[in-house]
Write a sequence for this structure.
């Protein structure tokens, strides 16, 4: 029996379009984008650039009135059909516990609105 990907997730994802900046570790240029969805364990976003899975990123995510900083790892990368863009799934691998708690609280608040 095949398990749907959504059933394998450890964290509930929310359709929250948060502005974010990211930089591939070892490079010196930040790129700007917006998250497609976000959870306490990671996020997804779309970019014109291709970033290989296992690449680590420094991210700055603006959630409501606060800038959160995290390090994430690209878990998957998919080319979007009919577009010169890629969609990426990112897992948080380093996240300050206070900032992680803030994100979890914000997502709980967002989830109450469903």
């Amino acid at each position: 029996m095949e398990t749907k990907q959504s059933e394998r997730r450890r964290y509930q994802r929310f359709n929250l379009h948060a502005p974010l900046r990211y930089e591939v570790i070892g490079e010196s240029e930040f790129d700007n984008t917006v998250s497609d969805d976000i959870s306490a364990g990671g996020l997804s976003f779309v970019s014109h650039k291709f970033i290989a899975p296992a690449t680590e990123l420094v991210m700055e995510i603006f959630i409501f009135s606060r800038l959160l900083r995290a390090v994430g790892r690209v878990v998957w990368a998919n080319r979007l059909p009919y577009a010169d863009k890629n969609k990426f799934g990112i897992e948080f691998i380093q996240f300050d516990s206070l900032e992680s708690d803030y994100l979890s609280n914000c997502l709980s608040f967002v989830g109450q609105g469903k």
In short: Strands lie at 19-24, 31-38, 42-47, 56-63, 66-79, 86-95. The radius of gyration is 14 Å.
